[in-house]
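Entry 14. Ran structure prediction on the chain below.
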Amino acid sequence: MKSITLISGYLFLISAIITGIAANGYLKTTEGFTKLNPTIFCLISIIVCMFSLSKAMTVIPVGFTYATYGALTITAVTLFGIFKYNQTPNIYGSIGMLLIILGVILLNTFGKLK
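Output, structure tokens:
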């Protein structure tokens, strides 16, 4: 039973990551919340994201949940910016992203759950 609960926590985490990427990736298209359809899309996405993140945190420890969510969302939105808006990070930005990814891998691989 506990493994099913843990799986549902990770499914909520995946949902939070996907909707977080959607909300943040398309935020630029709202043009400062002056365009109605993109604004509605972003608002709904962030509401679903926060709901999913809160549900994930009921099963997975807060630090693990938020670190994984934050790192994957930051990385994906940066990649989104590269491909959609041609906004390439410099060498320091690239190193920073690699460190973020490495940090999450270390946390999820060697960090202790209590």
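Residues 2-110 form one domain. Will compare against last week's run tomorrow.
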